[in-house]
Automatic annotation (TrEMBL):
It comes from Phytohabitans kaempferiae. It is a multi-pass membrane protein. It is found in: Membrane. The keyword DNA damage does not apply. Keywords: Membrane, Transmembrane, Transmembrane helix. The keyword Membrane applies. Pfam families: DoxX_2. Its main location: membrane. This is DoxX family protein. It comes from the Bacteria.
Amino acid sequence: MTARVWPRRLTTGLYWLLAFEFAVGAITKFAPGETFFGPPYSVKFVDWGYPSWMRFVVGALEGLSAILLVIPSRRTRFLAATTLVFVLTGAVTTHIVNHDGLSDSLAAPVHLVVMGILALANWPADWRNLLRAPTSARAPQPTPSN
């Protein structure tokens, strides 16, 4: 294998690992009963001061972002990472405000830093490219008219 293949495979593996983690998080937020993380998220969100339905919003954002992370496009990965930066900023703030212990709230700040790095790594060259439909690499050449 060439030297360029390994970093690309490691990066792809990292994206898949993070997508798996957020997919599991999304599934547990939709689960009605206790999870392997403890009490149901419907109870946790109420204890944190949010309505219980907010877990569906957070779970949907995490699930959508997990899907976008595995699509090998800088644009989708940037959108996933920035969405998760906002979600994780709320999670970190919630854990700080509620004085949760370090063991309960260590994952959120670590993932926030990782998603911030991934958002910067996939930063678009031009913001307008985020809103445009993807185009092919080769644009048609204009033909001269006589």
